[in-house]
């Protein structure tokens, strides 16, 4: 029997886990119920770390019923981010975590932008990273100034997957990509002058690893709850977006990816060291390759929102299965009566980086039904993918040769056809959508010494892929609508700010 790696993907809404072998075959699969995101005020988005732990235990128990845990040779966890949790000196959570959807720290982000130039932040972090409300420094400054009693007890800041690693190993650790807004990604430590300027104690940052390094082993104290044996090596892992990039199937220069989850992660691989591109995240991967990518904050989240509020579905997994045949049956050419949708439901990350932006339906009329509105949401998310991909391609001077699709949104064939037509780039769709799990397993294979690098490891896990070519007529029609899409935000950008002022005054 083959050795297996347990890959845990802690998403924004639920936890998933697979037991995968070194060839990419899945031997066990598990999924937890949804856990809540608490939103006590506008712009706030909090989660209870106990919910993460219980969700992972549900998954590991399900896996243990499907395969003998003696076959497991390692554990690799990825999770949503940038989401931040403070721990006390004993490793206990100090309140709830502020998730990546939390935008309460907007004023702190503005202060950082005034105090530290782009050049200063680049020198400190090694990557170009805009200062936004959901990044670590902004959130930490908000916690420091608004919850001083909690702040005084803080001993470390971690991400969701780090908390699960702590529960498994008893060790507080993180990785260079997850804490990218606090740690220099090349030197794997905090730039002390940067931290001092921000007023953040560098000691809050735990020991930093590469994602494909072992951080510890599972302890006996976790066995009863997880049903995982003690002594299993645990990989540092990383945020789910980065894991999804590694496991997408893209691996060569000019190959692009679109990880379609709660967010839409889109980018491409480049030759050589990472370039400095304002508004784009660029990281080193191997000696030969780097990656440039961007994120739509509310990709699948926009579709989930539609399901909850417009369709009234209380079971989004079932709703996705129900709308799949509808979407697959749509004609490829867009309908002239479909509204244009901006998926900025809780602010937007790249390419506009505006936490005050909000969703827009432009061009509504009384003849539009629920199916038409759903199509406009899927088109809007697809256009956000093109917006980011064009933004990157224009700056690096390389047009993508293909786009590898992963994540839950890639399950709908009709939506994949739409992505190909909107972007004008052929899509490659693997048989399994578990891109983040594949990326996590690839990290573990390198950490365990079974593969030389993560991209080589990931390439052995992907398997066959379906190719979807753009339809020329649909592509031409979508390009006209895309020009309208791009023009909307600049036209109403100022109004988003005014609306934010009204919201803030009402809270006061």
Written description of the protein model:
The protein is α/β, with parallel strands linked by helices. Among the domains are: 4-239, 2-Layer Sandwich (Nucleotidyltransferase, domain 5), CATH 3.30.420.40; 245-295 and 420-467, no CATH class. Helix content is 39%, strand content 19%. The chain contains 16 helices and 21 strands. Strands 15-16-14-13-19-20-21 form a 7-stranded mixed β-sheet. It has a 6-stranded mixed β-sheet with strand order 3-2-1-5-12-11, with helices on both faces. A two-stranded antiparallel ribbon has the order 4-7. The chain is globular and about 60 Å long.
User: CATH class of the domain at 4-239, please?
Assistant: Alpha Beta
What's the total number of strands?
Answer: 21
Main sheet: strands, sense, barrel: 7 strands, mixed
Radius of gyration: 22 Å
Query: What is the CATH architecture term of the domain at 4-239?
Result: 2-Layer Sandwich
Which whole number gives the mean pLDDT?
92
Tell me the span between the first and last alpha carbons. 62 Å
Q: Helix coverage percent of residues? A: 25-40%
Report low-confidence residues grouped into runs of 5 or more. Answer: none
CATH topology of the domain at 4-239: Nucleotidyltransferase, domain 5
What structural category arises from helix and sheet content? alpha/beta
**Shape by Cα distribution:** globular
Count of DSSP-assigned helices: 16
Strand content: 15-25%
CATH homologous group name of the domain at 4-239: ATPase, nucleotide binding domain
Strand order of the largest sheet: 15-16-14-13-19-20-21
């Amino acid at each position: 029997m083959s050795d297996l790696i347990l890959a845990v993907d802690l998403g924004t809404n639920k936890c998933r886990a697979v037991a995968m072998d070194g060839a990419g075959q899945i031997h066990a699969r598990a999924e937890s119920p949804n856990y809540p995101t608490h939103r006590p005020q506008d712009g706030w988005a909090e989660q209870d770390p106990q919910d993460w732990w219980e969700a992972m235990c549900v998954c590991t128990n399900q896996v243990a019923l499907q395969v003998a845990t003696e076959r497991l040779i390692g554990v690799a966890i990825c999770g949503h981010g940038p989401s931040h949790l403070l721990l006390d000196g004993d490793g206990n959570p100090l309140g709830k975590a502020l998730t990546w959807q939390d935008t309460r720290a907007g004023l702190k982000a503005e202060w950082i932008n005034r105090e530290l130039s782009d050049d200063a932040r680049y020198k400190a972090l090694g990557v170009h990273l805009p200062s936004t409300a959901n990044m670590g420094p902004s959130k930490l400054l908000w916690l420091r100034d608004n919850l001083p009693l909690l702040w005084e007890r803080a001993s470390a800041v971690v991400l969701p997957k780090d908390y699960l690693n702590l529960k498994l190993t008893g060790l507080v650790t993180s990785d260079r990509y997850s804490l990218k807004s606090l740690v220099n990604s090349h030197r794997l430590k905090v730039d002390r002058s940067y931290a001092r300027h921000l007023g953040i104690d560098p000691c809050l940052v735990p020991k930093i690893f590469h994602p494909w390094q072992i951080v510890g082993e599972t302890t006996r104290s976790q066995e009863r709850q997880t049903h995982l044996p003690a002594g299993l090596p645990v990989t540092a892992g990383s945020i789910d977006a980065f894991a999804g990039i590694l496991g997408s199937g893209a691996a060569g220069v000019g190959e692009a990816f679109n990880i379609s989850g709660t967010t839409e992660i889109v980018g491409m691989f480049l030759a050589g060291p990472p370039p400095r591109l304002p508004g784009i995240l660029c990281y080193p991967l191997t000696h030969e390759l780097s990656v440039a990518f961007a994120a739509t904050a509310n990709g699948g989240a926009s579709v989930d929102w539609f399901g909850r509020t417009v369709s009234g579905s209380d079971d989004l997994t079932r709703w996705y299965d129900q709308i799949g045949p509808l979407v697959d049956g749509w004609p490829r050419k867009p309908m002239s009566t479909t509204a244009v949708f901006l998926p900025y439901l809780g602010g937007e990350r790249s390419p506009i980086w505006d936490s005050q932006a909000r969703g827009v339906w432009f061009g509504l009329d009384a003849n539009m039904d629920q199916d038409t509105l759903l199509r406009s949401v899927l088109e809007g998310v697809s256009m956000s993918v093109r917006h980011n991909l064009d933004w990157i391609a224009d700056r690096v001077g390389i047009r993508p040769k293909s786009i590898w699709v992963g994540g839950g949104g890639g399950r709908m064939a009709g939506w994949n056809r739409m992505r190909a037509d909107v972007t004008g780039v052929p899509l490659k769709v693997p048989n399994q959508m578990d891109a983040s799990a594949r990326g996590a397993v690839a990290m573990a294979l390198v950490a365990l010494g079974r593969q030389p690098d993560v991209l080589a490891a990931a390439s052995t896990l992907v398997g066959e892929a379906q190719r979807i070519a753009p339809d020329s007529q649909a592509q031409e029609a979508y390009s006209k609508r895309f020009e309208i899409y791009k023009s909307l935000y600049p036209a109403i950008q100022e109004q988003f700010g005014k609306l934010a002022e009204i919201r803030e005054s009402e809270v006061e």
